[in-house]
Amino acid sequence: MITYHTLTTASPLWSQATTQVAAIDWPAGPHLAKRMRTPAVWQSFERVIYATAGDQLAGFCALLAEDIVPNTTYSPFVSSVYVAPDYRHQGLSLRLVQQAEKAAEESDIDGLYIVTRHVGLYEHLNYALVDRREDQFGRLNHVLYKAFT
Known about the structure:
Blueprint: E1 3-7, H1 14-22, H2 28-36, E2 47-53, E3 56-64, E4 77-83, H3 92-106, E5 111-116, E6 128-134, E7 140-147
Parallel strand pairs: 4-5
Antiparallel strand pairs: 1-2, 2-3, 3-4, 5-7, 6-7
């Protein structure tokens, strides 16, 4: 059974999540973990959505003010959506995003952006293409947006 935790820097699971996020083999994990180790940089609405199966990391994403597309006014973002290999193809990425949306709405945020190279994934949750931008690594990405009603 997957359990979803919406973490702030004060959450008891923050340290455990930071360690597990840092250990994944996708560069976004260690990058996010490095940011998690600096609680002072976190804005009041920012969160990490941490999915576990027992003590094992099943997946995560973050609700952040900024993502990997520089020089933009877009904000805030669902960032760094990751699902561990044993939990893929079960809809976990979409459930993680939905948890981030819930956290955003609880913070009176009226919409979210997602930067992705995936096509057709987040559209299932009514995200729509609003832009195409190069990220900080020079890769062309889609910028999607969803307004909350």
